[in-house]
């Protein structure tokens, strides 16, 4: 592990972009639809609250990782609770990354099928997507980080594309009065936003590879979380003031519907331009889950890791063969959400508490 870290290190600057690309994905396209079902016009508040929840967990991660600065998530579990229970927890961690990655790929395929390639078989789109993701995931983390830095520049294009939507009619009354949905509904909406922001847990695997002084890591990941929170809130807000509640209920991907109505003499179907660019951020989140799932197996040799990436990519392909009916995807999403809460929120919090109570840290080899 030490040899790999000396040849596979990243900077805090690269960590910033790794987290951004890990969190941004296909969920954003349908998030306004999901949030408004409970929070209505206060959906943008739900997203801000979700960002606060993510920040709390980042602080928990930071406190835990400070105690084990050279260990990854699945190594910390065995260090704190012992080999047997640690391996048992690692099974759930591995399953979570694989299932979330599978769900992200399924939703990716569904969007491409619906908006770009309606006549192309889903399995063919899945094969093309996963082949590209596997090709990059088998690379060193520093190579992945460099690609993510370049890919983040596309966000500027996405933002510029969204600015064009401000020339269409807007109704701010759709979000007024602020807070009218009630605290309960706003919190229910924040649950959907929180699930859309998943990907920040990759920090538990990126942290040991940071080459620089790790004192500024919390600041770096906090800025990344602030960027993601504002990015999501911005897109949800412009969608909420563009469509009524009844309209959003009938739209699967409201953001694409918003851009679909924009047309210029030299540019038509802005929504397809947006989606074509958005394919890269959707793919980067899958790459992150492939990386984390393969690293969670704690393989010693580099070639073993690459074989694991290919194998896990094959498993993701099999997962995407699940029938893509809405009822099946909804049920799949529900169970994956439960597992994600355990792996992303519950287990790290318990590990931190136990490590403090039992005075466990990386140098406590005898405990």
Topology:
Layout: H1 2-7, H2 12-23, H3 27-39, H4 43-67, H5 73-81, H6 83-115, H7 122-137, H8 141-152, H9 154-163, H10 183-196, H11 203-206, H12 217-240, H13 245-250, H14 254-260, H15 270-295, H16 302-319, H17 326-357
Helix pairs in contact: 2-8, 2-12, 2-15, 3-4, 3-10, 3-12, 4-10, 4-12, 4-17, 5-6, 5-17, 6-7, 6-15, 6-16, 6-17, 7-15, 7-16, 9-15, 14-15, 15-16
Number of helices: 17
Secondary structure tally: strands = 0
Strand content: under 5%
Q: Which architecture would the CATH scheme give at its second level?
A: Up-down Bundle
Specify the CATH homologous superfamily. Answer: Amino acid/polyamine transporter I
User: What can be said about the biggest beta sheet?
Assistant: none
Low-confidence stretches: none
Kindly state the percentage of residues in helix. over 70%
Distance between the termini: 21 Å
Gyration radius (Cα, Å) is 21 Å
Oligomer kind: single chain
Assign the CATH topology.
Answer: Amino acid/polyamine transporter I
Mean pLDDT: 87
H/E series, N to C? HHHHHHHHHHHHHHHHH
Number of domains: 1
**Would you state the CATH class?**
Mainly Alpha
Rough outline: globular
| Alpha-beta content class | mainly alpha
Keywords: Germination, Membrane, Transmembrane, Transmembrane helix, Transport
Pfam families: Spore_permease
Protein name: Spore germination protein (Amino acid permease)
Membrane topology: Multi-pass membrane protein
